[in-house]
Structure formats: C-alpha cells, structure tokens
Amino acid sequence: MENILKPEIQQFINANLTTDLHSLLLKKSPFPEASMLEIIQQIKGKKVAQRKFRFLLKEGIVFPPNLNLEQASSQSTAEFKAKNLQGKNFLDLTCGFGIDAYFLSENFEKVILIEQNSQLIEIVKHNWMILGRKANFINEKLEIFLTENTEKFDLIYLDPARRDHEKNKKFLLEDLSPNLLEIQEKLSEISDEIIVKLSPLIDISYLVSVLKSVSKIQIIAVKNEVKELLVFINSSSKSDEIEVSTINLESDEPEFFYKLNEEKSAISAFSEPLKFLYIPNNAVLKSGAFNVVSEKFNIKKLHPNSHFYTSDKRLNSFPGRILEVEKIEAKAIKKGEKFNIISKNHPLSPEEIKKKYKISDGGNSYLIFTQSQKGKIILKSV
Q1: Where is the chain membrane-spanning (predicted)?
Q2: Domain assignment present for 259
C-alpha cells in the first residue's frame, strides 16, 4: 500500500482517470514498485467513487479490489441508514470497505470494526486516518470476536456475505456468512439493537418466520432500483407489529410506511381506468403492500395481479409514478411512433409490442399494456 501512495504514482493515476484501461493494461508500468494492475485498480476505484461514494475523492485514499468495491454500499444509502442513529458503542462485525461503518458510526463515541481480510482492514484503517476518523480496527473472524468479547454495544451492524466460495449468490439466512440464525442469540446478549443488511431479493415473509424480535424492515431503492433490505432486530421490543418502510432515494417520492399485519387484513377496491394511473415504486412493490396501498391512499386497483392503481384525483403524496391517462384502442397506435412502453400482467413483452405495432422506444408519452378486471387494455399518457 505504501508504494501506491508515492506522489509520482498518485500523479500518474490522476493523469490517467480518463485513459482507456485496456490500452493501459498492455503497457509496462513506469514504476518498478507498482505493477500496472495495481495502478489500474486505483483508477477503477476512483471512477467508482465518482458515482458511488464521492466523500472518498481525496488525496491519499486507497481503493480495494473490484469485489469489495462492488459489495460496498453507496454513500446515499449509507447516509440514509445513519439517520437518527446515535449512542456510546458501535460495532460493525463485517466492516468490508467501511462505507456503512463510516456513516453509521458518526454519532457514536466508541467504534469497533471487525474484518477478517487483513489487507482490506489495513486499507480502511489508512483511509479513516486520512478522513480524520478514529476506530478500533480488528483483523479477526467475527465468530472468534463474539466468543471472546465481554463488552456490550448500543448498536451492532452486519452485512453477511451473500456468495459462496464459488462466488454463487446465496439468499437463505442459513447459507450466508455468518449464519445469522446461529449467532442471533449471542448478538442479542450484547446489544438490544441489531441492524442486518440483506439482499433485496430475500423474501420478507421468510425473514419474519425465522428471525426473532424483528421490529422494523426498511427497503431502500435508489432511482427506483431496490438496493438493499435492512432488518432491525430489537430484543426489547414489546410490539408484535413489524413496521415496514420503503424509500426511493434520489427521487422526490415520499417514504411509505405500514405495519406488516395490515396487509393481511387490507382489502383492495377495483375499478376500470380513471383519470390518473398510479404505479408504485419498486421499493413499495418489494414490500408486498398491494392491498394496503389501495386502502391508505383510497385508490382502486385495475386487476388483482397488475398492481396498477387508479383515481379521479391526483395524489402527490403517492410513492411512485403518477400518469394522467386515457384508454385507447390498438388501431389508434400509429406505425413509427415512439413511446415509453410498460407491460404488466399482459401476454406481450415490450419487445413483442414494439415488433407487433412497429413502434420504438422514446418520446414523451407512455403506452401501458395491462389488464383490468374486464380484460386486456391499452392506456396512453396524456
């Protein structure tokens, strides 16, 4: 790490941020103490930082291998997670590149970071020194730390590895590393508040069936792409009602909250298309709040399986896209027109629709192919 930080090498890295990396790879490194692969890795890291964690765009910051960059949270999701968190002792059992830890621990007096990868923890330690942040950096397997630890914490955070040794993705809790089901009891002994970051693909009903003391679930999307699911485990929680919140960061859409049990008793109303069409954002869709959305916003579904909603009034508090629409016949679609095409609960895919009607992507209007309770329909935004 010391070699890559030499001023002349850092200068070369900064001078080649826009250079084609394939052409660089074919060249010999001008520095005997740093290979071209090491140099390119730092260039890649700075490029990722430009779009993912801009607070690391400082002189002297070192970036880890691609996998660690890929697995690290973005700055926007980390900052959101850190809202309203504070206390005395913070423990991150799966530090990784330390993005989450940096923001989550900001309002804690004592910070302990556990990471079994010795090179990675040294990079994090160096970067935090550059950033002026202090912590206790421990290079150890978390299972060993938990066996030897006698301290209690106000908050424990962990992001279990979701890949096996062959780098295949895993989703069940018992297949993750660490196995949360095996260590949950131990975690609850040393902290009342535990936050676990999980894959957005994990099933919520499965989660609440296997985990104890779940108090809250957060589903975080960025620009309508669901990035992560957070489980809050609070051993002192006295309520059986689990709060689910959804957020679509980098949008002007509001957060949406509901109690998990509410969905079981909620009943959707149905209607043919009215003046406005409501399309929930992907965080809401992931939450499974299909009937609660209808009840809470007093809007009606088009079909049990479409998850499109409709109303005569425009509700700007809705967490998703709102389109003013009209129902059209297929013959009204002109060859060569451009539309943003949406197809849900309809036999034709967007590609098949474009081919059948000889239209293409683009333009300012939406064309929505879906179903109401009376059958297949086509809606056009106005």
Answers
A1: none
A2: no
